[in-house]
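User: My instructor asked us to take a sequence, write out its structure as tokens, and then describe one feature of it. I'm not sure where to start. Here is the sequence I was given:
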Amino acid sequence: MRIAMIGTGYVGLVSGTCFSEFGIEVVCVDKDARKIELLHQNVMPIYEPGLDQLVADNVKAGRLSFTTDLKAAVKDADAVFIAVGTPSRRGDGHADLSYVYAAAEEIADAMNGYTVVVTKSTVPVGTGDEVEAIIRKRRPDAEFDVVSNPEFLREGSAINDFMRPDRVVIGTESERARAVMKQLYRVLYLIETPIVFTSRRTSELIKYAGNTFLATKITFINEIADLCEKVGANVHDVARGIGLDGRIGKKFLHAGPGYGGSCFPKDTLALVKTARDFGAPIRVVETVVAVNDERKKRMADKVVAACGGSVKGKTVAVLGLTFKPNTDDMRDSPSLDIVPALVEAGAAVRAFDPEGMNEAKKLLPAIDYKDDAYATMAGADCLVIVTEWNEFRALDLGRVKSLLADPVVVDLRNVWDPKEMKDAGFTYVSIGRP
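Assistant: Let's start with the prediction itself. The structure tokens for your sequence are:
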């Protein structure tokens, strides 16, 4: 089989590469000629562990290629995946579908014979209907079906998530399209991965419902952490105590500075907007969005309080800038709220992130970037952990204490044990733990 993947961003590049690993011939398309040129040199536009090697292997095997020529890629494809960006639209928070609709128009002009057009991008309910209408208007006589096939990839573990998913969701009521999609996912079908077939609109909603539920779990445990700090309880023990309940589950119950990234912020906003548009507002998700936005802003106050009520004239060392480890993604990272607030309060901020500094420098230009964790903390009045990269867990605490001008540590990811830190002589502040 042959597929075209429109868009070589996070979703498109990972999905296309993994499909090629399944033995399918994949052509990845992007309008950005520079990006395609770099991919030809095996230079990845994103950081994802193991992706560069997987790309190289499949390019060498002749199953994976890259081009700017959408027409050539689409005309012989059995299926065409739309994997372009759907960022939050300015003003109302709705998903910006302009790239999706533009891709649909180009696909319509390039199709040759029966084609399954698949929305892989995260799109609001009803988008598939509009994509179908766009293609039908431009090509009234074309043979095609539009299918929803949402992605469930976690940055940092996306390859494993694609290769060994919890489930694959496919939204279509066409038996012909269903047969094509089953063939594309045949490898997963053989290892008994649940393949969930639904209507197209149901499939579109599943993606948003899943992400907003996880965002709600994160926000819930963060508010419980706040209560723990007031009553002297331990949020880790609370999370374990409720997470062992099979109806709740232990995942996404890690207290921290708030969720960020490419999915949860925009997907919660988009679901809120969709629900309002259809006259069925989801008050829980509306509250989640408001609470999370406020939480990220309040994390700087936690740092200021740990520094005696003021950071004016003080140096604050920040470790971790990306929204989570194992990615270079800075989108809606808590650091984008915390760092500017500290600078505004008069602090001199130094920072280090293992993979995110190139992107961070564009977004946070007014701080001092260092080449490693220890250089960041030398002479600083406070150390703040914003992202829990594994290398930060193994820092030499004796060396950390000797480098800091004042042994104050604000751990927004609960990386270290409170007793161990206090016994080592640190003034230690974490999230939801006495």
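For the description part of your assignment, you could build on this observation: The CA atoms of residues 37 and 66 lie 9 Å apart. Try explaining in your own words what that tells you about the chain.
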